[in-house]
Amino acid sequence: MYRPNLMFLVLYFSLECICLSQSDIYSLSYIYTALSKPLELPGIHEFTAMGLMNNRQIDYYDSVSKKKIPKQDWMREKLPPDYWEKGTQSRKSKEQWFKVNVDILMKRMMHNSTDLHILQWKHGCEIDQQSDGTLKFIKGTDQYSYDGDDFLAFDDVTMQWVAPVVQAQPTKRKWDGVQILNQYTKGYLEKECVDWLSKFMEYGDNEFSRADSPPKVYVFAKKAKTAGHVRLTCMATGFYPKDVLMHIKKNGVTLTKHDGVQSTGVLPNDDDTYQIRMSVQIPEADKETYECSVSHRALKEPIVGKWDGECCDCSSFGAVVIGTVIAIIVVLILVSVVLFVLHRRGTIVIPGLRTGDDESRTSSDSGKGSQNEGSSDIGSEEDVKKSMLPKGSG
């Protein structure tokens, strides 16, 4: 049976692999994702591969286009055609490798082919650019996951593979048995990956040297799913780099997860800045003081935004309905009064409504006398007001 969380994993991995993006921290990583079967969904392919530098995609390949392409102008301008040709052939080979190994793992896990299964591989490196311009290796990553769970990971200190699940043990024994393979993996993470990252840093120097950008902070509340409650949200957006500290406070006291605080975590915007939201559910009638505090290195001091106690959508529908009803009542009353006054002056004649001036005329002309008295369709102004008031209004 199809497992919905797997679809989330496919979409999630395009963002999960975004690495640290501080001004002096750089990272280069490559992500490969293989599905056990096609999904027939736009943008979702049986196999995808992408390279990411810091928070930006630099190249891409999928099983439909079957071509490695640049995703940054400086990649297109600085790297020769044979780089992309060799990259395309390399990724075609990996696509076949993943296809075979997805089948192997499905059998090892005793999974059937009707379900969707995902094999993912992430490898790369992270460095710290020192004040003198030298690069310091921080860590390397080479790990595999199956259906979103850790399957295998390389420890570059011990040069051994770590297998957190029993099904990964055969692969661990096989790969650890070829020491030259582990030596190559360590060498790639600590040397070759760093060399490529250094080169890309030089190529994309202007792209990755953007100035710090402070956050804009918004505090608002909307009706919650729970009756009588609202969800108070604190949003900070447009900041760079991604490191930010946000708190929701009640009467000056910071609220935590135990108080029901939820967070989206830091997410990327389309313009290479970031955003984050935190929210908490509170009673609609709560009159305590709530505020949002945001700290960022582009700020000299934290921004504090206070909630004004208003709810964006709590009473909007009721207010519109009540306002409309009142407006209709007022209009009808005015029309009724005007018609009644004009009728009394003899300017207009309203069928079924008689005044002292036209009573004799009506009686003599129709022969019905005053038999219609008290049966007016409109009645007096006071009667109109009573008849048009909503029930239960008093």
TrEMBL record:
Gene3D superfamilies annotated for this entry?
Immunoglobulins, MHC class I-like antigen recognition-like
List, alphabetically, the InterPro entries matched: Ig-like_dom, Ig-like_dom_sf, Ig-like_fold, Ig/MHC_CS, Ig_C1-set, MHC_class-I_related, MHC_I-like_Ag-recog, MHC_I-like_Ag-recog_sf
Identify the residues that the record assigns to the Ig-like domain, covering every copy.
215-304
Region entry Disordered: which residue ranges?
Answer: 352-394
SMART domains tied to this protein: IGc1
Q: Report biased composition (Polar residues) as residue ranges.
A: 363-378
Q: What UniProt keywords are attached to this protein's entry?
A: Glycoprotein, Immunoglobulin domain, Membrane, Signal, Transmembrane, Transmembrane helix
Q: Which GO terms describe its biological process?
A: immune response
Concerning its family, UniProt says: Belongs to the MHC class I family.
The protein here is known as Major histocompatibility complex class I-related gene protein-like isoform X1
The gene from which this protein is expressed is LOC120022425
